[in-house]
Fold these 2 entries.
Entry 1:
Amino acid sequence: MRYLITGGAGFIGSHLADHLLAQGHHVHAFDNLSTGSLDTIAHLADHERFALTVGDVCDKPALEETADGCDRIVHLAAAVGVKRILEHPVETITTNVRGTEHVLEIAHAHMLPTLVASTSEVYGKALETVDDLDTLAEEGPWVLGATSKRRWAYACTKAMDEFLGLAYASEYNVPVIAARFFNTVGPRQTGQYGMVVPSFVKQALAGESITVYGDGRQTRCFTHVLDAVEVVDALMNTEAAYGDVFNIGQPNPVSINTLAERVREMTGTDVPIEHVPYEEAYGEGFEDMRRRTPDMTKLEQTIGTRPERALETILNDVIAHAREKRQRSSPQAPVASLTADAFNAA
Ligand SMILES: NC(=O)c1ccc[n+]([C@@H]2O[C@H](COP(=O)([O-])OP(=O)(O)OC[C@H]3O[C@@H](n4cnc5c(N)ncnc54)[C@H](O)[C@@H]3O)[C@@H](O)[C@H]2O)c1
């Protein structure tokens, strides 16, 4: 099978490429290297079944050319990260809506099974505002804030991607799945765009204070990226999954304060944990969710399994990767330079 992965040089995309290549598939990554990088796929430079095209999903002809000959699409390319979304609202909206339109038009033209990445952000503040709601289920409500609050733009674009994907599925029978990822974490994720686990680990290893936004009592559920890519693969191989939306996550909430303490323990450091008001980090009027816990019933019923790797495993893997990266970037380590030309044609 030939897979096109948009956002294939990103965090989830690079792990998905590894997973699919290990199964004998061909992978063509399409990425503009905005938040992704050649570093994440450097180990695939000489792989005979892997290719990279550097391009933008808003450039439909380039995307069409790359999709030529592919059997399936996993659409991960998007403007991601709260920080980036607050700083570049136009780019976020355009990339996430126009890019998905292009992917779905191409999927329709060739009737390609396609998975579109969505996010737990689409649920917005549902857990805090809807009575008697303990977990977030795919058919449940979503509650977003005012359009003047930029962070909700990301959720809205991803919800629009879902609507469009489901519309192509029901109106034109294009096999489309929408997958709502909940805080997916693992090696290669960068903390540069506001992702909490890599940021905490980087701060702890550098001997700096761990910065917790707000009071730190807000909870999140973390999923190992290796679990997430296994689920993506399983969904795409399950006929009953097409035309539907799925949570990809774990229903085990951990407070951000506890997370910071675990990172401190597991890195063997005794750095201080510092609380910073949201306004200082993200500007006046920033809204966050207190809780975000997925209901995993639907996924488990559909593919017979769900993400299971524990937080300890996730943190162990992230810390090991961060340590190795620090060593590689030490002034004594040789600097390897890689360009996009180094990647073979699949
Ligand atoms: N990691 C998470 O916790 C999480 C949670 C919810 C949803 N998601 C979704 O999963 C997908 C992958 O996220 P990730 O965590 O791997 O982030 P990432 O930033 O590592 O991956 C996104 C990739 O898309 C590329 N990209 C961005 N704009 C592009 C454009 N216009 N054209 C081509 N490529 C472009 C980036 O360079 C990057 O490689 C995204 O759609 C994201 O919204 C991720």
Entry 2:
Amino acid sequence: MCELLVHQFRCRSDNFGLLLYDPRSKLCASIDTPDGDTIWRELGAKGWQLTHIFNTHHHYDHVPGNEMLKEHSGCTIIGAKNDAKRIPGIDELMEDGDKYDFGANKISMLETPGHTLGSVCYFIEPEKILFTGDTLFSMGCGRLFEGSAELMWQSMQKILALPDDTQIYCGHEYTLSNAEFALEVEPDNLALQQRTNEVRTLRHAHKATLPVSLATEKATNPFLRSDSVEIKKKLGLQGHPALEVFTAIRSLKDNF
Ligand SMILES: [Zn+2]
């Protein structure tokens, strides 16, 4: 095992650029490519050579730099087999549970459909780093553009099964507006109030609110808390299954 570095920076208006670097093997991966020029500049500033791109899904703000970065670096582009036709320049296809050798580490793909049918997360064990793309945001989850609430809820279960000290990196800085919604759903949640205060301070200082631990998300993210008695009470869904509560929260958020 070798310590990996993650460099996170702003791309476009609210996307995150994410570079994963292994100092021992000197391999460097970009998680999605929201803006090729910005990513290329950050690579140069770090002195890292891009060797891989791991795409989380096909949306226009996650793949637009794929071809330009591949042309400049000769990197390998990896994505979901399910989404192969929609990921520009894709070279290697992975499926749920597949592991990709990245130096001494392995990067696992978790298929997490819901936001799109081909959406995936990447998990690195034992470093416990998770890249969620637009599937999970801090205190939120992705809109259901292609999948059903049921599919997304199943995807949430896969994330919930990871270790509590997993560090989560997401595709967008949506945390503050998600927190405002979460407080509507669960106004008396102390952990949520505390995290919201932290997030306000970070945003005020123009700092990123990510990464965040899975433990914090379990305590504050209403979409991961669809089994919470408090939330069920607030929504008038006492005794209803978590999937129904999740579906209700998702539709409230769509209209928030
Ligand atoms: Zn998306």
